[in-house]
Write a structure and sequence with these properties.
The complex is a heterodimer of chains A (285) and B (603).
Chain A: H1 2-10, H2 17-39, H3 51-68, H4 70-73, H5 84-106, H6 114-147, H7 152-169, H8 175-187, H9 194-199, H10 206-220, H11 223-258, H12 260-283
Helix pairs in contact in A: 2-5, 3-5, 5-6, 6-11, 6-12, 7-8, 7-11, 8-10, 10-11
Chain B: E1 2-10, E2 16-23, E3 27-31, E4 38-39, E5 50-54, E6 60-64, E7 70-72, E8 75-77, E9 79-83, E10 88-91, E11 94-98, E12 106-113, H1 123-130, H2 139-162, H3 167-172, H4 210-214, H5 226-232, H6 238-249, H7 257-260, H8 275-282, H9 285-288, E13 310-314, E14 321-324, H10 341-345, H11 350-358, H12 372-375, H13 390-394, E15 401-405, E16 408-411, H14 417-441, H15 451-479, E17 492-493, E18 504-505, H16 532-535, H17 552-556, E19 559-561, H18 562-566, E20 576-578
Parallel strand pairs in B: 1-12, 3-4, 19-20
Antiparallel strand pairs in B: 1-2, 3-5, 5-6, 6-9, 7-8, 7-10, 10-11, 11-12, 13-14, 15-16, 17-18
Helix pairs in contact in B: 14-15
Classes of the chains: A mainly alpha (285), B alpha+beta (603).
């Protein structure tokens, strides 16, 4: 417990920013919206077209515009109370409050129309954002543990270095072994499609296959090649272990970024739908 | 002791250039850092990578620092202490060869960059491997694509289709352009308009106007005079007044048709029925509208005046006089008929006994009497009752036989008093003629011919017709007088000289609708053990003038008002909250004119 407090004092996460200020603000917004929803007198039924419906709709639309501005805000570097971390914290909690505000705005009237499409897109954006929150809260720690002191460039450098070493250590070896070493240096894939990236491993990794092969080979090989193969195995082991770390790192990076490929395009689709929604209700008012 | 480094560069065309540098030491540092004796620029080489030493015996030793590696003679090494001339060390892109020494004290090595230094890992390389940019379609392109699809389908397309010059083209499309704009299912009554948005939404950005409604609802009546409605409306202040102002600002005045009739809310009836809408004005009418005859009302259960049925105060065959009188004033209605309900419904009374003897539909058992349903037949739908009919309902007991002659009952026609009198006169005159004929044909009474006899015959005939007239007058008088068939039920106007036979039935008007503006539905009240007498006290009524309608108190046994219910009124089994519209209607009210194409609330 003491440790936790200490870590908060040193570095508070985007969720706990300013002692959960924006969580409290969002809960207040939700509370006021719900109480107003209960209190306001609607005839004939609760829907987006009553005065309270319009009020919630306006608040919701302004919230959406402000939330979208995080994309602009993150490109300006500042500090202080309105630091990027502050914005992110507000973005998250106000975005979650939007869920309540917009749902009450609908008056729970849904249908196969543009209006519910807008709502659905908003739900999509918020849901992908929830994934984002989860991964941003959990992944960086694992990521940091995984890569230790190594930067991404260092990892790639090291792969190249090890590839060179592989080529050099393979020099004295018999031709029949060379193909395997070349597969490891030339055909090892880092990354690949999204599913490979998210899986964090490559079952068909040629480096791993080569390592496995040479370990087996060591038992039967003649003395002349024995030393060279031992050297090769030690390099392959280093490379294999590095590849595992890199693939884990790729996985973490994918987790951190993947949700944004939903969050951002859906946000813009939502802005378009929202525009059409607002224009349409006044066009046929 | 020295170490000589020969820096070998191969020029294009095979020419070699060598620059020699001699260090006055037997140990040099190798690494990427600038303060190394031998600085090698390659990112794969550590800042401080290795030491090259000249051993005392002239050999060289290559020693890695901090776990770095190098390939020495093709083997991966971390150190090698005894390198003879010809040995090859590879680190990074460089090759270091041990040469034959220039002198006994010297160690000579050749340094050659055998491969070009590859460009450092750039951030682009990093992103290619670690980022998702190359893996997935770009966020920006997806954002643009989705946005344009949504804007095109749901904004541009419907607007395009709504323009007059595109309407025909839009109709030919298999898909309704503005279908997705529908904010909710339209009410059942307007379901025929569901794909015709422009019927009501006539102009872009202009809220639906009343003109669009009265275009179809031409015969609809307003509720009351516009001036009276404005006058009786309660003053709106504070927040509500602000709301109204905002509403006006958006071109939505609060007294539009659509203010009450809100469409596209399938769950709600398009006709609002909440009591407040009526009570707002009607609870204070005495103050807000002093000239009105309407009484204040705000809730059926707790604040509603006693019913004021329209009773007939002056019967007439053509236009009877109706007067609205409160049931509290014990009103009397005049139908022109005599019908004591008590006498007819009494068990064991004379009517009951007679009914028991007749059989047929009245034969509910000897002496058990007549029931309501024997005369009051439900009309189709069961809301009200068909008018009581003399032939069908009364004649079985009240026959109109005035003479039994030769075994035949002579019956009068109902409903035509002049014809009745004429029929009776004809009957008795015919009887007189018959008597004269009989006398002349009879040989015992026939006289010898002669002047005296002719005179006697003439006298006899005159006498016979005179007697017939007298008989007619007496018989007609009898049926129109107490104990007579007509008198039993009707009010009669008698002539001063009965010989004129100028008898007349006073007009009759039977009230068949006491509440013409709030029709009562008997059918929906056929529940539980409700009987006629639960509400109508007919069994105790001795006069047909009694108005046998139940007072509001009886209704309140089951019906409570919306307000009383909201305030915690009881809602026991069999009780139900009722709003104003349960009995009343708003449009076509008692004090309104047909709008006839005019919009609501306009004089």
């Amino acid at each position: 417990m003491a440790k936790k407090n200490q870590s908060v004092a040193v570095h508070s996460s985007f969720l706990a920013h300013r002692n959960y200020l924006f969580l409290k603000l969002s809960l207040l917004i939700c509370f006021i919206s719900i109480v107003g929803y209960m209190w306001a007198d609607f005839e004939p039924v609760r829907n987006g077209g009553t005065w309270y419906g319009y009020t919630l709709g306006t608040i919701g639309a302004l919230l959406i515009l402000w939330l979208t501005m995080l994309g602009m805000r993150k490109r300006w570097i500042t500090q202080g109370h309105w630091s990027l971390k502050g914005w992110t914290s507000a973005h998250i909690y106000l975005g979650l409050a939007l869920l309540i505000v917009a749902t009450l705005h609908t008056g729970f009237q849904f249908g196969w129309n543009l209006h519910t499409l807008s709502y659905g897109l908003m739900i999509g954006v918020i849901a992908s954002g929830l994934f984002g929150i989860y991964f941003y809260a959990t992944v960086p720690r694992h990521m940091s543990n995984n890569r230790g002191e190594m930067g991404q460039a260092d990892m790639l450098d090291e792969v190249e270095n090890l590839d060179r070493l592989l080529r050099e250590t393979a020099q004295p070896l018999n031709d029949k072994y060379i193909e395997l070493v070349r597969d490891s240096t030339n055909k090892t894939v880092l990354g690949g499609n999204i599913f490979k990236r998210l899986s964090g491993r490559d079952k068909k990794c040629p480096t791993q296959a080569a390592l496995k092969f040479f370990r087996e080979e060591l038992r039967t090989v003649d003395n002349a090649s024995h030393g060279a193969i031992l050297d090769l195995i030690s390099v392959l082991e280093r490379k294999n272990s590095l590849l595992q770390h890199i693939r884990k790192h790729i996985r973490f990076r994918a987790l951190l970024e993947f949700w944004l490929y939903f969050h951002i395009p859906l946000t813009f689709a939502l802005l378009a739908a929202l525009t059409a929604h607002i224009v349409s209700v006044f066009y046929y008012s | 002791m020295t170490i000589t480094i020969r820096n070998l560069k191969r020029r294009p065309g095979g020419r070699e250039s060598v620059r020699e540098r001699t260090y006055e030491t037997d140990e040099i540092n190798i690494g990427r850092e600038a303060d190394n004796d031998l600085q090698l620029l390659d990112l794969r080489i550590a800042l401080k990578h290795a030491k090259l030493k000249r051993n005392a015996n002239g050999t060289a030793s290559f020693q890695m620092l901090g776990g770095q590696t190098a390939t020495i003679n093709g083997r991966l090494k971390t150190r090698d202490n005894n390198l003879k001339p010809g040995a090859v060390i590879r680190i990074g892109v460089y090759e270091i060869r041990i040469e034959e020494p220039n002198s006994p004290d010297d160690l000579t090595v050749t340094l050659e960059q055998t491969e070009t230094v590859e460009a450092a890992i750039t951030s682009a390389d990093e992103e290619r491997v670690f980022g998702l940019k190359r893996t997935l379609p770009g966020k920006r392109i997806m954002a643009w694509t989705f946005s344009l699809i949504v804007l095109g389908l749901f904004l541009a397309f419907p607007i395009w289709a709504s323009k007059d010059n595109h309407k025909e083209a839009a109709k030919a499309l298999p898909m309704q352009a503005d279908l997705a704009w529908n904010s909710g299912p339209i009410s059942l009554m307007h379901a025929n308009l569901k794909s015709e948005c422009a019927t009501c939404h006539t102009k872009a950005f202009v809220p639906v106007k009343d003109q669009a409604c009265v275009e179809c609802h031409k015969q609809l009546g307003d509720h009351a005079k516009a001036k009276d409605m404005r006058q009786s409306k309660p003053e709106v202040s504070g927040f509500d007044a602000k709301l109204n102002q905002v509403s006006e600002l958006f071109n939505r005045p609060i007294d539009r048709c659509a203010s009450c009739h809100v469409e596209h809310n399938s769950r709600a009836k398009i006709v609002p029925s909440n009591q407040e809408m009526c009570a707002d004005c009607h609870k204070n009418l005495d103050k807000s509208l002093p000239h009105t005859k309407l009484l204040n009302v705000s809730d059926f259960g707790s604040d509603h005046p006693e019913f004021k049925p329209s009773v007939i105060t002056l019967p007439s065959f053509t236009s009877p006089t109706f007067t609205r009188i409160s049931l509290d004033e014990n009103p009397k209605g005049y139908s022109g008929l005599k019908f004591p309900h008590k006498k007819h419904l009494e068990t064991g009374g004379p009517v009951a006994k007679m009914a028991g003897q007749i059989g047929g539909k009245f034969s509910t058992g000897l002496g058990s009497g007549v029931e309501c349903a024997d005369c009051h037949r439900e009309e189709a739908g069961g809301a009200l009752f068909e008018p009581v009919n003399m032939q069908q309902d009364c004649a079985v007991c009240h026959d109109l036989v005035f003479e039994n002659d030769d075994g035949y009952a002579r019956t009068l026609r109902h409903g035509e008093p002049d014809e009745v009198i004429a029929s009776m006169r004809d009957f008795y005159q015919a009887k007189a003629l018959g008597n004269i004929r009989d006398a002349e044909m009879n040989s015992r009474t026939r006289r010898r011919p002669g002047k005296a006899a002719t005179l006697r015959d003439l006298n006899r005939r005159e006498l016979a017709f005179k007697q017939a007239d007298e008989r007619t007058a007496a018989k007609v008088n009898a049926i129109f007088s107490k104990g007579g068939a007509c008198f039993d039920c009707h009010e009669i106007d008698k002539p001063t000289d009965i010989a004129t036979l100028d008898f007349a039935i006073r007009p009759i008007s039977v009230n068949d609708r006491f509440y013409p503006k709030s029709p009562f539905d008997h059918e929906s009240h056929k529940i539980g053990d409700l009987k006629c007498e639960t509400c109508h006290e007919a069994k105790a009524s001795k006069s047909s003038n009694d108005v046998l309608l139940p007072k509001i108190k009886i209704c309140r046994d089951c019906h409570i008002g919306e307000k009383s219910y909201a305030e915690g009124g009881k809602l026991a089994e069999g009780t139900l909250p009722s709003t104003c519209l349960t009995c009343h209607t708003y449009h076509n009210g008692p004090h309104a004119e047909i709008m006839g194409g005019k919009t609501l609330g306009n004089d």
